[in-house]
Design brief:
Length: 114
Amino acid sequence: MNSTILAKSSSHPETPYNVDFIINDGILSIYCSCPAGMYGQLCKHKAAFIECDKNMLFDISQEKILIDVVSTIKASPLFNEYSKFLRKKKEIEKKQRKLKKELKDIKFRTPDPW
């Protein structure tokens, strides 16, 4: 399976990014032409499409392609690993918010020694 889906760009709304889904010998690869994707990161476009977020579609007529791609992804072991990653990421982000608030509270309560 080789599919390309056009993703919205927040920095250049008139120019979409290409998100390519390639399955070769049972191995799924996902590439995005955005700056983060070009560095091999899990960009917001890849994440949105893995989660079947139709709001990220540049061209709504590609909705069926997205649904087909997502059903293929959900059948792969990658999806389970991605789901674990998302849960861990949310836990970490929650802890970060809590620590940031604690730090802010400490700074607020600590008198300026100067």
